[in-house]
Design brief:
Layout: H1 3-11, H2 15-33, H3 40-57, H4 68-90, H5 104-122, H6 126-139
Helix pairs in contact: 1-2, 2-3, 2-4, 3-4
């Protein structure tokens, strides 16, 4: 169905036009929502709200101010931003340990891996250690190997 037909049928209150709108523009609208709402279930809830807002505000669309797609994109983006804003204000505090703190078994595993890496690096020549150190530093400038291994 053409864009003009969808707009005209929406203005006539045709509910089948909503189906055509979701089929034709659903992927585009979800694409707009994705960077703002990372959680898939929240994104789907927000998508439903976006569709409802398009239905409610379709009479406000003015072709002289911009394209239909741009108008819908603005509604989708603003709805997602508002969705995020209201969720952050009402989101209860979690009792879980933050993800940036490591569990004791992860700390132990990390130490074991570090020790194994140190032993492996001591088995290779100084030039190979330097090459390895440079590759680590280039990929992740914040990480440095201990001086005795470099």
């Amino acid at each position: 169905m053409k864009e003009e037909d969808i707009i005209a049928r929406l203005r006539d209150g045709d509910s089948q036009a909503m189906e055509a709108l979701m089929q034709q523009y659903g992927p585009f609208l979800r694409y707009i929502l994705t960077p703002v709402l990372l959680n898939a279930s929240e994104r789907e809830e927000c998508f439903s709200e976006v569709i409802a807002r398009i239905w409610q505000k379709q009479a406000q669309y003015d072709p002289g101010k911009g394209s239909w797609k741009a108008w819908m994109a603005a509604i989708a983006r603003n709805t997602a931003l508002n969705w995020n804003r209201t969720r952050k204000q009402t989101e209860p505090l979690s009792e879980e340990i933050p993800a940036d703190t490591m569990a004791p078994e992860d700390i132990l595993l990390r130490k074991e891996r570090q020790k194994a890496l140190e032993q492996a690096l001591l088995q290779v020549s100084r030039q190979e250690r330097l090459l390895f150190t440079e590759s680590i530093t280039i990929c992740n400038p914040q990480r440095r190997l201990p001086e005795n291994l470099a």
